[in-house]
Each structure stands twice: as C-alpha cells, then as structure tokens.
Amino acid sequence: MILNNILKTERLILRCKNFDDxxxxxxxxxxxxxxxxxxxECYTRIEQAHEFIEMLNKDNTSYTFSILPKDKTxxxxxxGSVCIWDIKSxxxxxxxxxxxxxxxxxxGYALEACKEVIDFTFxxxxxxxxxxYPKVTNHPSIILVEKLGFxxxxxxxLKMESGEETEHYVFYLSQ
Length: 175
Known about the structure:
single chain; alpha+beta; Aminopeptidase
C-alpha cells in the first residue's frame, strides 16, 4: 500500500514509493551485486519496475519509502528504499527491508532512513515488533541492524526468490 506520508531526517527525505521511482528501481534491481545479496533475478526490462510499483499500490502488508538526499528535490530520483513489509497486523509484526544503490552505500543513509521508518512504524502503524533477516554473509547489513538496536536470536534457512536456500540471521526489535 502506498501512503502519502513524507518523512524527513537531518539529511534525507523519505517519500512513499511511486511511479517517479521506476528508473531508480530498475537500476537497483538490475545490479548483479544487489541480487547476489537477495537471491532475486535481475530486472532485464523497465516494465518489471513498473509492475512492482503497481503491486505496491495494491499491497496492504507493505509500506515502502524512497530515500532521497535533501539536497535533491522530492521529484528527483531516489537513491534507495526502506520498507516495512510482510506485516502481520494480528501479531503486530513487520519485517524491515532496505537497499541503496552502490554509489551511496557507506554514507550512513541506510541507518538514518531505517531509524526514521522504525520510529514511524512503532508510533503510527501499531506494530510492536520488527524483524530483520540479513544473510549471514552480508556483514554491512548485520552491522546496520545491530546499530539499530536489533537483537540476534538465531539463524534461519530461507528460500530465496531464485530457489537457492541460504542462511540468515534472525533479528528482533521490540517497542
């Protein structure tokens, strides 16, 4: 579900993902390095990005925000996204997801964006627990969720979109 919310941090604007994000989404999801981390097939057609955003419009278990540096305008292209997805309203649980284009990694943008969305999730969405499942080999993601205050409770084998089964840490953050 796409919201009309705009969140702001010191350096970032987080706005609900929309059709202005098609080219950013295509660049991100056609990056082989990105897909090695997430086990998804790379996009090969721009229409795939359009279809994904259409799906977000209909999904009531996912809230996805585009990440834009404040030195750009809201209508310019995003550099990443952060979401709460796989929301289970009855359990008051959602999963944190995030991604940045490679040129913008290592600048603290993901940490800043995730903090803001976590605060929004706890205060506005009625979610009490957020989970994260970083791949055990994705050290930057593991460090990120630890900085956000998540607690590791174990390891879980997950089947990726590609069909590959990989080990992921299970992290929880509760309000």
